[in-house]
User: What shape does this take?
Amino acid sequence: MASEEASHLYEAFVGQDPAKAIQVVERVRSSGVPQSQLFDTLYVPAMSLLGGAWAEGLIDEIVFTQASVVAEQIGSFVMPPVARPDTGVTVVIGSIHRDRHSVMKDVVASALKEAGFRVNDLGVDVRAADFLERLEETGSRIVIVFAEILATARAVSGVRDLLTAENREDVVLLVAGGPFAADPGLARAVGANGVIASAESALKVLGRVRDDILAGGAS
Amino acid sequence: MAEKKSGGKKPAAKKPAAKKAAAAPVAPVEHVPMRNPDFPVGVDYYPLDEERRSWSDWYDRDPEPDFAAMAASRISDVRVFVSWRCLETQVGQYDEDAMERLERIVEAARAHDLKLIVCFFADDRLAEMNEVPWGKRRDSRTDDYLIQRELSLVQKIVNRYRAEPVIKAWDLGNEAFCSGFETETALEKWVTELREAVREVDPDRPVLLGVDPETLLRETGVDPRGAIDLTERAWSHLTAPYRAYIAEGPVTSGPATYTDSFLLRAALRDLPVVVDGIGVHALEFSAAEEAAYVRTALYSALMNRASGAMLRRWRDLETEKREPYFRDPFEVLVGVVDVTGAPKPVLNEVKRFAAVAARLDPRRYALAPERAAVVIPAERYESLPSLAGLYDPRACLQAYIAAKEAHVPVTVAREGDELGGYHALYLPSPAKLTPAMWADLSAFVQGGGSVVLSYGGGDVDPALREIFGVEFNGDAGPRHAFACRVAQPGVLGDLRSFDARMDLPHYGLVTASGAMVVATDATGSPLLTVNQYGQGKAVFIATPVERAIAQNDPWATPTPVRHLLRTVYGTVASAAGAGAMLECDTPEAEIAHFLGEDDDILLILSHNAEKMTATLTTPRTVATVQDVRGGAPAEVGGKTFCVPLGPNGVAALRVKFG
Amino acid sequence: MTPTRSSQVLVAEDLARRGQLPAAVAACYEALAVNDRDPFVHALLGHLMLEGDFYDEAIAASTQAIELDPDCSPAYLALGLAYDRRGGMWDQSVLVWHELAEVVPDLVTAHVQLGEAFAAAAFEEEAVDSWRRALELDPKEARAHYNLAIAALKREGMSTALPTIRKAGELDPSQDELFFALLGLPAERLEFDVAKVKPEAEARLFAAGMLLRAEDFFGASDLVRLVLDEDPANAEALALAAYAYLKQEAANEAMACALRALTYSPDLPTALYTLGVVYSRFPGLAKHAARVFIALAKAAPQHSLTHVLLAESLLGLQRYGQAKQAYRAAVRLDPACVRARFGLAAVRLTEGGYAEAQWEMRRAAYYDTRRQGNFWRLYDAYAEGGDS
Assistant: This one.
């Protein structure tokens, strides 16, 4: 079935018929092939057939070029989705009050956005009350607080204290930055639920937190 | 904290059966001192902690809280710095207020059972301690009048505290101050006069000179060994400029993690050596990197025969803030507590280290003797245009690392030293050796010692043929690739053929005239030969491999090249009876083996910033392995056990054989 | 007035040009014995000390040269590079590069180095301006692109930085060199007559490869066509055709030919390379690119760039840890690989490893500036008494 449709797609390329090519793609898609699989199951074999036809001299250089233009035109129909699906999970992040370090925060924020998290970046020098306010506003239950110097890292306890005072013990407080990497005990001391050591660890930890939250039925 | 992760973990026995075995009964609680008096940990306590302060603010603060925190962190010694400028405001007139400040420090030390090392003449590039306004810009190191005033100051202070038990030692001057001397003679004269001034008043307390023999030589061209020998204690430390010269790169991996102990080994001659200046040199490092580096340096000191360790600075210097971290050419910025006085993660490392060191009672445990040495050639002391003084320390550091990677208990010696105590010597890439050294080598090898010599370029001494059994046919010049073809497998360990991309500055063309060719280059020109000479073995490497590692990228040395060097070093040492007492499969795990009567202690230090597991194999069956700080011993019942190590982690294990 | 050089200086200079460091240093000292106020000798010594990685000595000698003649541009170059390679001397470095950029405005390196010195001193905006100025002078200046990518990473994350890293990589001639190395072409360029190429597939493909390297796409295509006419299933010919299309920005033709080649020879490195490069141009094909580059790194593990390409595709998948391993493999094979160094720096930044990231970038600059050989250009211009 797939190889047959790939032949049809190839024929549409060579026939310079983008409408027919789109019909082939839609037909295959409606047969149950997911978007993420269309490229491999349909487009790749069709392109291989096209290359083979050119190599064998079945089509000349001009037809090859024109067919490639058609292939390019319908490329967007078969491309796997670029953005990862929205996780539905909102994360509030920022550097703690009196800390103006932003590099790690920006890198982690970007990675989380790319992975489909809804990131609310409050920037640098963020007070505990501002974290809480944004959590309330967005309904988020995850906050990542960044601190690169020891004094500000210790001040993250103020965020936990405020969350406790406001009966928001359901909020997952994650911390990131050099002092926490050096001393995991510090994260416990400030009342954090976990440490983010890198952008990749942010993705892993948030993935787990997301699963827990979804399992709990709330966002 | 990373150390807790690694060092705190119980070693896993390799055999599953052993893993399942029930823990042996917990040993009875023994009294362990808070600190090890034979290996004190100290810290430099600088007079100013804020850049905006002026010279007149010298120790104008209550030291009590700081000293209390030091004592709580198991710190024993504190070095304080005298300000001549504050004390002798006018010629012969000593400022009582300044004297009071010094007294306040002494009282605080007394209150917290800390020992003070008083440094008379120091430059911290901030407190202007020696810039006496009446000195009229004369050189305080060489001007007779100023030296007389210095003697008076020294005697005044020593006299005041000669019966004071908290004073542990008198430090005549730190390296920043001593770097102003231009000749050995001037330095030795100054040290002699000051030492005699101290001795007139205080005949007992040790006098020391706070300079490292290698770093000061590099900085100034002045060899301070003669001056150091006039004192009773030697110090060793890594300075920022020396680090930029010897191992410029990441501080938690590669050569940088061996540099402190290399300098310590180079400073160890006749006097006990304290490693000072432990800490990073700039604030660009994260708290985790600071902690990892300090952990490495502290354990390196303990594992390599230091008599103590001193941290670079107590409190961070408060300066202008700039993101992401500010930086400054000063090298005494970084402390173990932050600008507010709150402890940094590095202080936890210090505390944990002191707890481990306290378990190492030198009356019960002795470090396994080093019978192998890297030899610093005499040419190292030549000045430009000879490049030996620039190349050799780097090559020697790489040789030292290779020996450590082979787990050979190794030290550093110098050409001209007595060689009788060694069984194996490494001579890394010297351009030349003195005739006397060739004679010594001949006698050494004939007497049963083993030598590894790598070709350093240029002509060679005729003795090469006699001792190493090779005929030298000239220098083939530089190469851009390193090829090795093994001709005789197994003769010098598990060598493997390889082709690596690496610049070699020279390649000595030799033919065997008695030696066995163990490996060649790609076209059959001998690379590695071994010659039986008398009762010993002489191994020749036809290219300056240690220099090449240093002059290429020592953090990216091709794996097979490192393997070649450590295999040759390790095999030669083992055959000569100078090898490791136990085997370890992980080159980056440094091992110090402390031998005891009932049990041994192993310190295992990772020189890698990634997690790893070291597998150790001992010649005897290991009954149990236990963290030296306590906990249940793990039964092993075999000769092999695994030790998990965190990034730059340490394991301190008590091993019982049975 | 044109500065003149003594015969002793000429001897030292000759030895220095031939890379004979110890002899050149000795000759410099002989020249100094004759005239210790000759800026040429001090400049040469500065360069030689820099070549030996003896930074403090290089700084001392270059400073001396500048003191003797404030117009001694090669000494500024050596001084700035010594500051940068030594590290921790950014304030001084900024001044030197600023000066040199004014004296020799077309010296692209001065702007790149100035940017790096600014960045190390945390003056990000000034740094970006400097790199942009470098790109105005030379749009292909890879290190300026890489630095801009790192600057983008710091502000906006990997998704913004990665396209710039890739763009810089494609401008970097070493990527094309990888293809020809995978093809098995000798490093040296051979002259040959197309008309005399033997009528055998192997000879034709070799010749086609040589023509491709010379960017003679039509000549190469004719030869490939001859091979395919005889054997349409010749995978190597199809891979060559794919590469030729890729170089002519015909990505779909390239994809078609590469995919066809891989149906005949699934591990063919040249086809894997071309397909991987095509895939990596489409953000949606990040996984596909990674799959192809994993296969390429396995098929040709001895080439550092195969690991770099794999690492970059892993960055696109947010697998930073695996990317770090691949980059490290690349650096082990070739410590001078600027692209791998910057990639490692990017990965280290995602881990908060600021100091190590800085070091990787400094290492990249180290190898890049060593390769450029700008000292002799400035030195010769200085000797001639004119601008470079």
Chain B touches chain C at residues 240-241, 244-245, 248-251, 281-282, 284-286, 289, 322-327, 329, 384-385, 387, 390-391, 431, 457, 478, 501, 505, 551-553, 555-556, 558-559 (CB under 8 Å). The longest strand of chain B covers residues 612-627.
